Amino acid sequence: MSESAPMSGFTALPDLAVRTLGGSVIAASDESFAAKENLLNPWAPTFRPETFGVKGQEYDGWETARRRPGEDGELGHDWAVVRLGLPGVIRGVVVDTAWFTGNFPPLASVEACAVDGHPSPAEVLAADWVEIVPRSPLKGDTAHEFEVAGVERRFTHVRLNIFPDGGVARLRVHGDVVPDPRLLTGLTVDLAALENGARVVECSNMFYSAPDNMLFPGLARNQSEGWETARRREPGNEWAVIRLAAPGVIRLAEVDTSNLRFNAPQAVTLSGLDARRASPEDPSAWRELMGRTRLQPDARHRFRLPGDREVTHVRVDIHPDGGLARLRLFGDLTPDGERLLTDRWRELTG
């Protein structure tokens, strides 16, 4: 393979809490100045000065009222509970106080819990919580990165605690997706879906947007919600390598160039390998799943594949450059794939 773009550090992992992946703020102690839902907005925090509403300056974040001691003399603290859109193992948390300068909380901590099914906020609040980020100092207008180490458990919810009050623009919860095997085994599924545990592990170019975007659920609403490369000026083509949710057999590929009207690839190629038997770094180990096939701009393409090869990784080559809005690889988990998913689930939930 040619040199790939860097994909390291916990912030390169999916944001398990972002709204576009199904995250939701289900409860908060207070949201007097700015709504709790803003914590999970997918875009970078914005600010317009002197935009005063009836509650004061408007912020693209969550902001609570100023706390005062109660009758018992205790000041207390504010909190917000987030349901992760993609439950998984949390590797790091970002608490971003962007644009909050005189009203940010001086301290914050983060807890996590696991509650099966579709619990109510009251049931989540009553769960057993584990501290994953201890009480830590914050600065104003700063994105604080906190690595989470030594907590190998699947979590479904997190709670952000701020001491005692103030505003936080964004909460990002990065980690490894751990899907429920009961929702995948015995079914035809999208083996490349982020929500099923797949992700891009290598990529030649992600100048405009991250390649994991093409594995998101739903349809891309604009170019930024897919994967897009810079214009290639040298020979060759751009590519990305996807680690599938588990070993499986791909029977149908959907290659979507929606919204890419003047920057769609001319063609696409798909190849696969079984990383249990060969290294992805060995070019000769890759086997063709779909030969070079012409693409149209702003269109969803569906291609039936032979379905005669068990693979763990797929390489998508776009010729010569451009982007993909979405890539779906529908197929069946092999018995070994089902076993691997089930074993990992038991290990992280037992």
Explain what this protein looks like in three dimensions.
The protein contains 2 helices and 21 strands. It has helices spanning 121-125, 335-349; strands at 24-28, 52-53, 56-57, 62-63, 78-96, 107-113, 130-137, 143-147, 155-163, 167-168, 170-177, 188-190, 199-203, 227-228, 238-256, 267-273, 287-294, 300-304, 310-319, 323-324, 326-333. The two termini are 39 Å apart. Keywords: Hydrolase, Purine metabolism. It is an enzyme of class 3 (hydrolase). One of its GO terms (biological process) is purine nucleobase metabolic process. GO terms for molecular function: allantoicase activity.
CATH domain class name of the largest domain = Mainly Beta
CATH fold name of the largest domain? Jelly Rolls
The assigned structural class equals: mainly beta
Number of helices: 2
Could you tell me the strand content as a percent range?
35-45%
Question: What is the first-to-last residue Cα distance?
Answer: 39 Å
Low-confidence spans: pLDDT under 50, at least 5 residues? none
The level of helicity is under 10%
CATH-level-2 architecture of the largest domain: Sandwich
Give the quaternary arrangement of the chains.
single chain
- Strand elements, count: 21
Total separate domains: 2
Characterize the overall form. Answer: globular
Mean pLDDT score, rounded?
A: 94
The largest β sheet comes out as: 8 strands, antiparallel
State the fourth-level CATH superfamily of the largest domain. Answer: Galactose-binding domain-like
The radius of gyration over CA amounts to: 22 Å
Q: Which series of helices and strands comes N to C?
A: EEEEEEHEEEEEEEEEEEEEEEH
